[in-house]
Design brief:
- This protein is of the alpha+beta class.
- The protein has helices spanning 2-31, 41-44, and strands at 65-72, 75-81, 88-93, 98-104.
- The chain has a four-stranded antiparallel beta sheet with strand order 1-2-3-4, with no helix packed on it.
- The longest helix is centred in the N-terminal third of the chain and has 30 residues, at 2-31.
């Protein structure tokens, strides 16, 4: 009978500890939605974070002007005009801060 009482007491203690850990996890998750108990190995090997607003050099000649910027998802389409060599559309990836492609409108 003593053995059975010991098992019940140990299981009761484990239940209390489990409820406490569950409560702790819920409280941490509500204060920080990105909080995780265990981090996966993929997150540890991820690329370093880039700046929120990376600097992108378009290398435009002095007479070129940006007349339109059309955002679509993580891309921005920049319409460039001015002298004849400026007529083009530049597609920029805003997350990576890089020019994806340039579409020239020269004949």
């Amino acid at each position: 009978m003593q053995f059975l009482k010991g098992i019940v007491i140990i299981l009761g203690i484990l239940i209390v500890i489990g409820v406490g850990l569950l409560s702790y996890g819920l409280i941490k998750k509500t204060t920080d939605p990105n909080w995780k108990i265990f981090s996966s190995s993929n997150e540890l090997k991820s690329e370093p974070a880039i700046n929120a607003y990376p600097i992108i050099n378009l290398n435009l000649p002095k007479d070129c002007k940006i007349i339109n910027a059309s955002p679509e998802g993580t891309k921005v389409f920049l319409t460039i005009t001015g002298i004849s060599t400026c007529n083009k559309v530049i597609v920029v990836d805003t997350l990576k801060g890089k020019i994806i492609t340039t579409i020239k409108a020269n004949p």
